[in-house]
Amino acid sequence: MAEVRADLKSIVAALKKDDFTEMFMLADEVRERKKGEVINIRAILEFSNYCKRQCAYCGINAKNKSVKRYRMQPKEIVKIANETAKAGYKTVVLQSGEDVYYTKEILGEIVKEIKKTGIYITLSCGERSFEDYEYLKNCGADRYLLKHETSNEELYSKLHPCGTLKNRIECLKNLKKLGYETGSGFMVGLPGQTFETIANDILLLKEIGCEMAGIGPFIPHPKTPLKSEKQGSAELTQRALALTRILLPDINLPATTALCVINPQSRQDVFDRGANVVMVKVTPEELSPFYEIYPTNIRVLDIRAGRKDIENKIRDLGKIPV
Ligand code: 5AD
Question: How confident is the model at residue 37 (pLDDT cuts 50, 70, 90)?
Fold first, then answer.
């Protein structure tokens, strides 16, 4: 019988298993018991690619001067969010780089306007003050995504010249305190990462009490300092995801875009290995190429067509799109 405990040794041993089949089956059982056959679809709108930070892996980091920057106006953001609600989405994720242009007041107005449709709002706009998070919660934001990226302090500092792991965790704890459904997550295959790092990444999700976690492979971007590093493994990413499902049974776990980019088969497989969420881009087609955090080949469809397409794909897997 497959088994894993919430401690470092046990998780590392599981990650290293020769044959992971039974563990994937256990993750699938837990997913079925906790989430049923429902797959939650979220729309994601990447509304600005300006970023003040210099994360070594990220294609839109401030140092990359070759990327054309864009910023959507509040009116456009609200318009697209309203269209996603009409197309049947229950959640819109508003994501951007860390862009100081959007003050809490500007973001707050956007949130209040979109909330009129009744749709859930997830914000993913990086590290902000407690006061900002509080203000945005009061405007109606429901959830917040802020991945911890890696739980190893030394590796975190190397990859993030503008921040500390301590501060990142502080932000996540603030979000929890304020009553956000809180999402974190990490990358698999970062240069210098070990099995122990991944085990600690999973344990950190548990310690914070995350309601969501995005777990994706690292993909080298040609315009970043990590351009010559090796890409993360799809198998190891799925193992980390499955163990997260087993150890945090109630968590929401997306089939991350990055995973599906490096291994299209994963898009089907992960839904039988613990995942229960999928995100669909609703970023305007002409802007989407500039939001390249890692190289992708994803084409955005129009909002209604994109929704229909994913619903059909989910039904083809014998699951229920919501
Ligand atoms: N490879 C994989 N994932 C990346 N992200 C950023 N850059 C990369 C990359 N090169 C992920 C981070 C971030 C999310 C928006 O995208 O985990 O939180």
Answer: very high
d(CA 176, CA 169): 11
Mean pLDDT (whole number) for 110-138: 98
3 state SS of 206: helix
CA-closest candidate to residue 269, choices 256, 282, 284, 286: 256
pLDDT of residue 23: 98
Distance, CA of 161 to CA of 73 (rounded, Å)? 29
Cα 61 to ligand 1 centroid, rounded to whole Å: 11
pLDDT at 1 over 80: no
Handedness of CA 170, 248, 201, 43 (dihedral sign): negative
Q: Among candidates 76, 180, 79, which has minimal Cα distance to 138?
A: 180
Chain centroid to CA 149: 10
- Is residue 167's pLDDT more than 80? yes
Q: Which atom of ligand 1 is nearest to the CA of 57?
A: 10
Ligand 1 centroid to residue 151 C-alpha, Å: 15
What's the gap in Å between 218 CA and the centre of ligand 1?
7
